[in-house]
Write a structure and sequence with these properties.
Length: 259
């Protein structure tokens, strides 16, 4: 069991090894992703209370529209706006696994907004701005990412928006990285303030991700009830490589459990 407040280099080494092993015996990427979010959710407690440190852990992967499950294709098409087209090769950021304190947070099919979002859609920068910036870092830029800071500041005029380098921690890293918002409350980079951040006491948001293969990225995002120090967030970067190694233990054409 780890403490998010005091996560050390030794803890990082131990957790990295544990995550690498989560791909053993898995048949699909979804199975690996499910193991990862459960392992992270169950593995971190708050130092004083012993309660779970994370309210919610989620795992996203990018996929071309043509490879989505039929229900996900219908989901994407139903929310499509007129300002972008959906092509067979349109990359969609897809919720592959989710785990949290509420039962509906433990089934990806019950996500109302984030089941699959085209990366070039304005919805990505609006609803998952942290991941939109990570996509930009890896060369998968939304058409609206360039205007992300402006659009978010217009929605939250009472805040001073942080810049890309404050969220994506290593601007020179183009294969795996950490994204981090230390103060989630009223942050222009964190969606659903009134419905999620405030009622569930979210203090910091931490994630990591990387390039899995040509044209495909993955991202894990963790919503913490404790304030996370920046040096602690940096220690999650090696988990991106461990997670990639776990994913690569299954055939890359085996994505969903039901296929």
């Amino acid at each position: 069991m780890f403490s998010i407040e005091t996560f050390s280099l030794q803890d990082m080494t131990e957790l990295s090894a544990e995550i690498r092993e989560l791909g053993a015996g898995a048949r699909t990427q979804e199975s690996v992703a499910d193991r990862v979010v459960k392992h992270l959710y169950e593995g971190f407690n708050l130092k004083k209370s012993g309660e779970k440190a994370f309210a919610l852990a989620r795992f996203f992967i990018s996929m071309p529209f043509r490879e989505l499950e039929p229900p996900l294709k219908r989901f994407v098409e139903a929310r499509r706006e007129d300002n972008y087209d959906i092509r067979p090769d349109t990359r969609c950021l897809t919720l592959l696994a989710t785990y949290g304190e509420k039962p509906e947070w433990c089934e990806r099919s019950k996500s109302s907004n984030h089941r699959a979002i085209p990366i070039e859609s304005p919805d990505l920068a609006t609803e998952l701005p942290m991941i939109a910036l990570l996509c930009k870092q890896f060369g998968f830029e939304s058409n609206s990412t360039a205007d992300l800071v402006l659009s978010q500041s217009e929605r939250h005029p009472q805040t001073v928006p942080v810049v890309d380098s404050d969220v994506v921690m290593d601007q020179d890293q183009a294969t795996f990285n950490v994204f981090f918002v230390q103060e989630a409350l009223d942050s222009p980079y964190i969606y659903a303030q009134d419905d999620f951040v405030k009622p569930y006491g979210i203090r910091s948001v931490l994630g990591y991700g990387g390039i899995l293969s040509a044209g495909q990225i993955f991202a894990v995002i963790l919503f913490s009830r404790a304030s996370i120090k920046r040096e602690v967030a940096q220690r999650f970067k090696p988990l991106a490589l461990s997670t990639k190694n776990a994913l690569l233990q299954v055939p890359q054409d085996k994505v969903f459990d039901l296929l």
